[in-house]
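User: Structure please.
Assistant: Input sequence and predicted structure:
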Amino acid sequence: MGFQPWVPQQDTNTEIRVAMLLSLSLQIALIFLGPMRKRSSFPRVIVWSCYLLTDWVADIALGLILNNMGNIGSGGTSSPIIFAFWTPFLLLHLGGPDTITAYSVEDNELWLRHLIGLLFELFSAAIIFFCSLHSNPMIPATVLIFIVGIIKYSERTYSLYSGSIRSFRANIGIIGPKNPDDNYVTIMRQFNSKKKAGLVVEMAILDGEAAKAREHANRLGELWGLPPSLSLQAYDLFLIFRRLFVDLFLNSEQRRMSRAFFLEHVGMNASAAFEIIELELNFLYDMVYTKAPVAHTRAGWILRSICSGCIISTLVIFFLHDKRGIKRVDVRITYALLLGALALDMAALAMLLFSDHMSVSLRRSRRFNWLVRVAAKLLLLLRRKRCWSESVAQFNLISYAWGRPQTYKGHFFLSVATMLRAKEALEDLIFVQHVPLRRERWEPEHILDRVFLLVRKASERYGDKDDAIAMVFNGRGDVALGRFEKHIKDPKRWGEKKFELIMGRVVKIKDFDESLLLWHIATELCRFRQVYGPPTEKTVTGHHIGVTLSDYMMYLLMKQPEMLSAKSGFWLMRFHDTCAEARRFMDSWIGSPGEARLSLLEAVTSYKPEEGKDYESKSVLFDACILAKELQGLDDELMWMVLSEVWLEILIYAARKCPGSTHVRQLNRGGELITLVWFLMAHLGLGDVYDTTKVAGTMAKLIIHDQ
């Protein structure tokens, strides 16, 4: 019975054993490293390596076992038989853990390739299985693991398909023919019939949009403060706002509903608002990068039960099997594969039970109220981990141009890069650092608090007035300066000329990247200004916000320009010209960083704009130094209040212009602050994500007049 094996091949037993253990080790690494990448950018290289290696190692092992089948029945060894039993474990490993199916968004678009791969791997495994039929005493156990492997690989392929753009849009319900408005058709029929009956009928069009929006907001609000209601509120909002991540629009009813929810609740502060935003992004991450589209469904639970039952049954069968004639090393590896598969399955189940999806499912089921209360207490004890990195990357143009990093880590990697002559390859390690938004958990998040305050005030003030919103949030420093016009123009202090000099340097700039470079250099030069006396609380807060956002926005321009919609080519020319000009002034300086920046400020401002600068240069160094000189003429507190407000304005402007599909790509790198800001603005009705040309929720009503 079965296929006749081919000619015996050279012994590859050791390679097969190593490949099987390596494949299992990669699965263990991925199940725990996968969730870490949404909270940190640190494990990116490790996850990427494991993600690529796991498929490669499994394919190599499958090929080695296929090649080894010719040794069945030769030399009195049972190794080829046990290898045939190991084959379906490779299908299981190719299915991957629940915590990672795609490394990037682009992997989801390759779901068809994975489907073809599934058929090919299944065909190869079937050949091995049939070759071993005539002498394989563990056929039932092999079939059980085959079932598990096929299920796991199919789950991964379906999850990749679900995360693709076309499938994501189809799940939202925007593909397919539009159904006619049944309410309108019914009303028109009644109108015509009553008119034919001789009645005086009038049709009144009512805007039910506001009522529906308020009703939906109140439904969410009723859950406020109930454990674990925050996840349920976030999930309801996610079902509405997920369409933004495939660059679709929301209607005006959804806009009013979200605004009502975020503006009318007493307990809605910056912390609660951003926690809801983080939870929504966490749901999105799970839908795009993990097996959540399968795992959290009824079919997913059934398949999980089947897989767990098959693994346990196989373990029992092998435990009871007569293992005489099987090498001890092969017995140990088989136990490792079985126990490893069971442990991975149990770990995935534990992660599933303590996930935000599970809390939503329990909260929706009224039959499990007692379980909801128990789960709420457990979640308080096992506090949910953060959903993003809570840190921002920093890149400083002056340090980059000077060639001297700001951290000890940067100096170390600079030495390594110099020795290896690979400075450009290690540039991110040298000049990019990550800093937390707050040093301690108990500290206030000044940046998020200020963003929430600014966005909420704008939403309360302008509502649905898109023209006014665009005017306020299209500023790149000038609107923020306008808020301090009264203070700067104070005749007892600086006067009107000072304000005009500062504003004059800002309003003449048209391109966003030029504004960003100008304010970044000015902020860096103001950072080392000599201060007399202890700083005030406003000064410290303003300094923290200004410096952090300055280096963060510079990082986005340099490393993630697609998030800022920067004009391709122009920003890069301007950046390199500015660096080259700064380098000419700083190359020979050997003093401290602060002294170097002060000397740069003095040296540049002593020149006229035309001197020492190529005619075709795009550098903004001179204008930035003049702006810094004028800002340093203000007192320390006002200077940093101005700079912090300017950078908040630039951040909000950039967030408003960034498309949703770009934000999805950052979720597997620890997330970005600009993503949270963009999503918050969308919830408060301030983003460019609403189709205001269509009015949703319009209802018609018949009015019958007495004759």
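Confidence is low (pLDDT under 50) at residues 1-7, 175-182.
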